[in-house]
Structure prediction request, 169 residues.
Amino acid sequence: MNVDVEHRCDGHAHPTPRRVEPTFSANIRDMAELPLTGGCNCGSVRYEVTEPLVIASYCHCRRCQRRSGAAASPSAHPAPGSFHIVEGEDRLRRWKPDDGGEKWFCGDCGSSIFGRNLSHPNSIGIRMGTFDTDPGIRPSVRAFVADAAPWEAVPDDGLPRHPQSRHGT
Prediction:
């Protein structure tokens, strides 16, 4: 998908925000404008997404529970090549467990920004709470429900549930 470019008086080309149809329409108020932007709590790390998000999912695995402090972690998955760190790449830190994907976070404030698991399609998962505005997509699947927190029931919301990874691995 092409990005419309607007030239401003500073001499640089800037993407012109575009309105796009949401990928998953249930209960979505507005269409999202591109690029989508977001970042960490302290503002050191900033990112943009230049194409519509592909899918969003909830993860109920124990690792996400510990990383987020919540029963489930919602992540949005961008189209390949459309997620870009635009500020603070040097502030990012990574934790790579032996048996899972990378977890990327701000080294200054600790905000979890995204995860990456190159063995999966849609390998980047942006933490939905880090978007500046409504990203225009809603989680449409639940993964690792076999590991769901015993202190909070998995909602009966009609979303497909996978006992382990939604990718079958």
Remarks:
- Helices lie at 62-68.
- Confidence is low (pLDDT under 50) at residues 1-30.
- The first helix runs from residue 62 to 68.
- The chain has one helix and 14 strands.
